[in-house]
Design brief:
- The complex is a heterohexamer, with 2 copies of chain A (97 residues), 2 copies of chain C (120 residues) and 2 copies of chain E (123 residues).
- With 97 residues, chain A is an alpha/beta fold.
- Chain A has 3 helices and 5 strands.
- Chain A starts with a strand and ends with a strand.
- Chain C is α/β, with parallel strands linked by helices.
- Chain C has a domain of 83 residues: Hypothetical Protein Ychn, Chain: A (3-Layer(aba) Sandwich), CATH 3.40.1260.10.
- In chain C, helix 1 packs parallel to helix 2.
- The radius of gyration of chain C is 14 Å and the shape is globular.
- Chain E is of the alpha/beta class and 123 residues long.
- Chain E has a single domain, classed as Hypothetical Protein Ychn, Chain: A (3-Layer(aba) Sandwich).
- Chain E is built from 3 helices and 5 strands.
- Chain E has a 5-stranded parallel beta sheet.
- The longest helix of chain E is centred in the first third of the chain and has 14 residues.
- The chains are: A alpha/beta (97), C alpha/beta (120), E alpha/beta (123).
- Chains C and D meet through loops of C and loops of D.
Chain lengths: 97, 97, 120, 120, 123, 123
Amino acid sequence: MTTLHIIRQSAYTTTDFEQCIQSLCMNDIIVFIDDGCYNLQHNLISTIDNSKKIQLNVMKKHALARGIIIDESIINPIEMTALVALTFSNDRVITWQ
Amino acid sequence: MTTLHIIRQSAYTTTDFEQCIQSLCMNDIIVFIDDGCYNLQHNLISTIDNSKKIQLNVMKKHALARGIIIDESIINPIEMTALVALTFSNDRVITWQ
Amino acid sequence: MNKLVVVITTPPFSNLSVTAINYIETALKLGVELVGVFFYQDGVLHANANAYIASDEFQAIEQWQKLKQKYDLALHLCITAAEKRGMTAESKNSIDELFIVSGLGELVELTSKTERMVQF
Amino acid sequence: MNKLVVVITTPPFSNLSVTAINYIETALKLGVELVGVFFYQDGVLHANANAYIASDEFQAIEQWQKLKQKYDLALHLCITAAEKRGMTAESKNSIDELFIVSGLGELVELTSKTERMVQF
Amino acid sequence: MAETIENSLAIINSKAPYSNTAGKDALDIALIFGSFEQAISLFFQGDGVWQLIPAQDGASIFVNDYLKTFAAFEFYDIEGVYVCQKSLQDRNLNEDFHIKGVQLLKQTDFAKKLAEHPHILRF
Amino acid sequence: MAETIENSLAIINSKAPYSNTAGKDALDIALIFGSFEQAISLFFQGDGVWQLIPAQDGASIFVNDYLKTFAAFEFYDIEGVYVCQKSLQDRNLNEDFHIKGVQLLKQTDFAKKLAEHPHILRF
């Protein structure tokens, strides 16, 4: 029973990502898409509870279009097909926008 | 040469008020209106540099409609006529929305 | 006399428009010279003649009408922003006649004539 | 088979719509059963037949058309949200024929039939 | 973890009540689901919690006060009304609401309760 | 404090470039003011600074890339292009931009430069 969290906004502008972090359960998945890609360097990422084993992904195309470099040791770059797959491999989806 | 800053959004949702604070000059005036009224208890208020002598005002009607209690020792409640007057008694207006 | 231009960039569906109209009405009552109001971005939706707002909700367009009956009011609409949102000045006219079809050039003009500009 | 409902609440003017359409197209290509797309809030502007978007910008409506030619696609529009934004299903028809005029009851129906719901 | 309520919808309310239509748009969905007897729960988080506090007076600023309709939740079979305790604390708000039956949840419980719903929309 | 530039307009860009129209809407105003020889300056603050960073590729996500037009600022007589240093630092961004002539300002200088303009719009 896990949730896929889709983050579409910059945490430098809105507090949606912060609210997402407060709503995480064990083994949930996060995918940064659209302006959510700007969060890759945001210090909120370091506030995510390690014991929850949250997997972090980013829509590669969206990050590259924004000139953002992906540190693959922290964030897993994915394609749209993977986002669709994650929609069904998790039990529900919340879009934080 | 002072600026009137009109704050229309909650700092709990967006970072506009934070950016406003970074843009204050000596003797500037702040007026909280609309959802800006939710900032009255936000701890960002305490980060405003005292030496800049910023005057804080709130649109009384907007705060009361939102069930917000105004602490008049910190914030000066005003009416719409005062906001219009402030528009001209200062040298420019920035709306943070 | 104090000269004012108001630029409206927020849509009419929310309480934000009540505030904007209240500000403008108060300024006019106090004798401020309103050089013009310029509608841009989602603000152009204020002029949408076909918008149906439930009767128990705030009718922005009626308020603009009341103000215009009482004061000399120039309500300029950025047509590019309006067309993007499905409004048109042509055959299927969807722009309320209270509003003047303008472009960003008008904003240049208004800026050059005013003392203060306020965005809502 | 995997069943999906997409709820679109963001407007078509920005890159957000590219993402939504790309997601739906990818799902369809992968064989997901798209029970329906429901447009609500500013999302209803996707169906605005009169919207003029500069030719060098992304034409959301054309993309919906292309998708609909290729796949069996039910695009439901919340008419209350649409009317608020000046769109009407009546005489001055401003709703593109790709879209089905619906209400929130349709969202109840879609929810009862789907495995997953994704908001864009 | 608790069982999922079949096909139920959770709505997260994240916006304050008056400066945009989010709260009203969410309410309209909730009432329709309730009247069709489709399971629905409402969650209030972030600035959404302002929708629940007492002593508000939308009419004084010409808002058609949809918050009053919240009192009808029980007639509409709304499954649950949950509020995030942390969001209240962050805003120095008391646990005092203008409707009955609001369940206050700690952060982890809020997340878990949300996860009992297969469908989630956020406004 | 410096003199006010008569009737000049300052635009504060506060949004990232692609997920909404704010940046393009602001640019359209700037270009019109420039072509009418009405003084205009552009300020980039908060997420607005992302509009200036190099190596962006809007075309890859089907954005008609208005950021390319920024290169024409000098032909349009844009008075000044200012960026908030703190906003860059908050985002771990280098002082490296896709156009020339960007002036980097410390927080207090950014505020003072803004205050040289009698009219200010924010997008």
